[in-house]
Structures are given as C-alpha cells and as structure tokens.
Write a structure and sequence with these properties.
The protein is built from 13 helices and 11 strands. It is of the alpha+beta class. Bound molecules: fe (ii) ion. It holds the Pfam family HD_5.
Amino acid sequence: MRMVSIRNLESGCVLAKPILGSDGRILLQSGVVLTSGYIRRLQLMNFNYVYIQDSDTYDIQIEETISLEVQQEVVSRIKNIYDSLADPKGNQQLIDSGKLGREFTNIFKTLFQSLMSDHSFIVNLSAIYTSDAYLYTHCMNVGTMASVLGMAAGFNNDRVFKFGLGAMLHDIGKIKVNQGILNKPGKFTEEERAEIEKHCELGYEMLIKQPDIPSVSAHCALQHHEKFDGTGYPRKLRGSEIHEFGRILAIPDVYDALTSNRVYRPAMLPHEAVEYLFAQSGSHFDPEFVRLFLNHINIYPNGTPVQLSNGLYGVVARANSHNLQRPVILALNDNGHKITPYELDLSQELHITIVGRNTEEAPPSAINAHGLGDEMNLA
Ligand SMILES: [Fe+2]
C-alpha cells in the first residue's frame, strides 16, 4: 500500500486503510473501490491523502503501534467523556465527583497495556481520521508518543504511566475556554489569544483536584506550552526550570497538531512537520528531546511518498529501526519516467537524501483489487 494525494486519486483506486470518524467508527472501509463521488467527498472533508493499494506497492504493509481496534475503543471512550463535559450540568458533576480523573485513568490503562506489549520503542501512527476527530485523536496520539518517549528515556513503568496519563490530558483545560474562539479558523486577536492561553492553568486546576490524577501528571497540562528559551506560557519558564515531562511533551504535542487534519488546514506530511521541529530545536524545544523524538517516532511511515536527491521518486518500503531518518525506499520513478521498481536502502546509500514529497507524484499503478471489502457510509 502507499499514501497518495487526494488530487492524484482516480476512480477505481482501492482504499488500503480505513478512514475513521470522530467516534472511532469506520467511515470508509479498506478494500472500498473509490468512486468520483467518494473522492469529491474526501476533498470536501479536508483529507489531503489516503492509503491505496496498487500493484507496485502491494507488499508494503503498515504497522500501527496501537491496533486499530484499541484506537477505536480509546477514541470512542474519550469522545464520550468530552460529550459529557460539553453538557454544563454533566460537566460539573463529572469534575466534582472525581469521575473525570477515574475515567481517563481507566482509558489510559487500555492504551498503556497495549504499549507495554510492544518493545520496539518506536511509534508508528498512520491511521487516518476526519478533522472533527482531532480533539480525541490528539489526546490518544500525544499520550502514545509521550509514553514511548518516556520508556526510551529510561523512565520506570510508574513514571511512564504518570507521564502518558498527563500527556493524554494536557489540553483538558480547553473545555473551560470560550469554544467560539477555540474553533475560530483565522488569526487570534490579543484578547482571544489570552483567552486560549488560559487552558494550561484551567486544566491544571481541574486535574489537581482529581484524586486519581497524580500531581506530576497535572503539571503536564500546566507546562506543555512553556518553551525552552523562556518565551512560552503561562510562566515563561526556561530550560531545566521546565519539568522534563513538559519539555518532552511540547514536541509530540506540536508534531501531532501539524500532522493532523484540521478544519481550517490539511495535515502536513510527517517529514514536513519534522522540519519545523528541527527549526525550533533550542528555541521552542529542548534539543536533547528533539533527538529522542527523531530516534523513536517514525516520521516516514511505510507507504510515505518521497522524492530523493538523485531524482528518484519512491515510497517508503520499511523503516531501519537503528536510523529512522534513512528508511528503505521502493524506487518507482526516475525523473518523471516510470522504472521497474527496486529497493534502495538509504542507511547504506548515505550520499542520497530525502528532499521531500514529490508534487509531481506518480499516479497509482494498475489496481490490484485483492480483498475488496464492504463499503460503509461516508456521511
Ligand atoms: Fe495546549
């Protein structure tokens, strides 16, 4: 399978990974043959790429760190809590009774158990959700990445749990800020920005009162927008004044925001988002943890289209776990001319670099319609 821009999709392409809705349910099942109607709908829903099956890349498989079933369960349970929080009566009851912390701790246990069974210390996240799932998938993805980064940093299980739980809840204070401002597509005014920035303290105040949430986890909400150079908020902490949970958490938080579909802009590809992390290393982010992130978060998931410095175009066939920045590429196209596909291991070919995504991406090859499934509603 391979990732293809929506603009290059043609009727008859076969979807290789399902598309998920905000409640974790499948909107469009893998195996569905895409019609022009589906493709139009996907464009309207702000998707900019999907995974498709084609004959050249049929052997490329995508491994998810968290199985799709667990992801669906976690997203649906997080959504249920947020739905209750949106109801003013339910909101206060959930918070005052301590149920908020208890429910989230139970959800995180599901995620944590799933992560504990994977000893690779490498995160692969490539499930595709609608933009309105962002609130819930962001909690899950950031909780997942933070937990694996904690493991990779040598935290014991108890500390990983506290960090991952805090990471999953880092933005909970957003339920207390003005929702109209929060969902505003354009630029914020000074006043609006000040309103949004309150979410760190509001989240901390909410979490610190929850008997099931450790104090250090609540600090994830308070500190995730502090910046390494002291220009962040709310307290303008600098360097090691920021708890290491906060210094690590800032990285997956920004990365997931950039690589998720949003209502007002399409998702960046993972390696495009990493350019931002590099550019902000030492100013926004602690350079030590940017390195940790790059060694453990697979920014080139299998199937990612890449343009190489030697003019070749291909897709990522598999990762090199010792060097995630230099995966094995299945070359498909040379300077615009289709070639017989062959593999190129970038960990061995150090003179070749990935220079980005090819805007002239080769169209999908003949469809191999193995395993066609039943299509679901794409409402
Ligand atoms: Fe935030």
